[in-house]
Every structure is written in structure tokens, then in C-alpha cells.
Amino acid sequence: MTGFLYVLAAAFMWGLIGVFTQYILAEGISALEIAFWRAALAWVMFLIHANVTKQVKVHRTDLPALFGFGFICVTLFYGSYQLAIRDVGIGLAAVLLYTAPAWVAFLSWLVLKEAMTKTKMACVVMTILGVSCISLGPQLLSGASFNLNLFGLIAGLVSGFTYALYYIFGKKFLYRYATPTIFVYALPFGAALLLPFVDFAHKSPQAWMLLAGLALVTSYGAFSVYYAGLKRLDATHASVIATFEPVVAAIFAYSLFGEQFSIFGYIGSSLILVAVFLVVLSGLRTSRAAGDEV
Which structural domain range is residue 254 located in? Predict the structure, then answer.
């Protein structure tokens, strides 16, 4: 249950990304610059944490995995998601991003040797359908056409795949290290690779505060509690719980920016909540079974 609460807290924090982004974009800062500062400022926070807790050192042989994590899960993920939004729109890009649970289920079976149960598959299907309803429902109701192009579709699928690799890297390669240690090495490498694509704008004190808040809440805070949860849950279950994020984002979008929640939004949210509920029940059964064996 503790792992579930950690991942749910991370999903809530990630759900605030859109809120911070809306206000920062209004300050005249581009999306890629936002991504760069989110990584760079979070790195400073993780570096301070790691130094205070003396968790900076890593084994030299693990550096390739840490840099690979930075390249795949910061540079490629941030970049591909921004390109997908540009080319196919926010709604379809979100659907493609949240193919992540399906990628996680497949990669967990292939790489981590986690069992592919019927419950897992049902939860994956429900989360993808749920996110599709939330993201695409308003367009379906209005009869708007989708701006489909091959490059945008590929970029969206890459964003979902690289997002899924957060779970696989955490379980397969980086479990030996505390969260601050991982991000001390991954974030600056990923941010540095974004640097050539960033056009820096003048920033007001308010813009700096918003960027710092974005880094603190959605990177430092969210990843800290998320990886604490990932140590207590299997990767597929964690990825399904994390899809509570678009529900949180939709609620804030409605309450702060007046964005309407259609009938498809309610259906999608219900599917995600049911999937999360099934994950919790599955985890409780597993815990009881382990206790009975002991």
C-alpha cells in the first residue's frame, strides 16, 4: 500500500506540469527552454540532496547506464514529446505518450521477466482507453479532424516508449542507487543534449520562480516519491497508477483555466480509476499470498 501511495503522489505532482507550463508559456518562454530548465534546476536540487546525504558516488562501470538514462529519458523523451505536440496536437500526443503502460507491460515481461497476467493486461487496456477518452473526447464531440502525419505519429510513439523506459531503467539498472544519485548524473547529461535546440528568452523574477517551482514539484519531488514507490511495486502496476496524472491535469485545467470536462472525460477518468483500483487489489492479494507462504 505504501508503494501505491508514493506513485499516486508522483502522479499528482506530474499532473501539475500543465499548470506550471501554462503560466511559464505566458511569460514568453518556449517549450524546449522550459524542458531544459526543468532538468537543469532539478539537477541542482538533487545535487544538494545527494551531497547532504553523501549519496554522490557511483561505480565507474554504472556511468554508461546513468548517461544512457539521461539521454533516453530526458533528451529523447522531452524532445520527442514536444515534436509530437507540434505535429499532431496535444490530444493525440497525450494518447501516444500514454501507450507507456503497454510498452512497460511488454518490456517488463521481456527484460524483467515479470508475469504477464490477465489483470495486468486488462489494466493496460483500460488506461489507454481512459487516456484516449480524456485527450480525444472533445475533438470527437466537436467533429474536429486530426492533424495526422507520419513524423508526428512516430515522435509520439517514441515519447511513449522512452517514457516507459523510466520504469525499466529504475528496475533493471538503477535499483542499487538512491534517487538523488541517479539524477545527479542523468539530468545534466540530458539537459546538455537539449541545449543546442534551446533559444533562451529574457525571464522576469516571476518566470524564474515558476521554473523553480516546476523543477521542485514535477521533477525533484515527483521522481523522489515515484522511485520510492517503484522499489515496492512491479513496473507494470506502477505505470498504471501513474496514469492517474491526466485525471489530475484535467481537473486543474477545468478549475484554473475553465477547460471543459466532456462526457468522454468522465468515462476516461472512470476507466483509469477502475484500473488503479484493480492494481491495488492485485497488490493486496500478492501481499497476502506472500504472507501465507511465510
Answer: 2-284
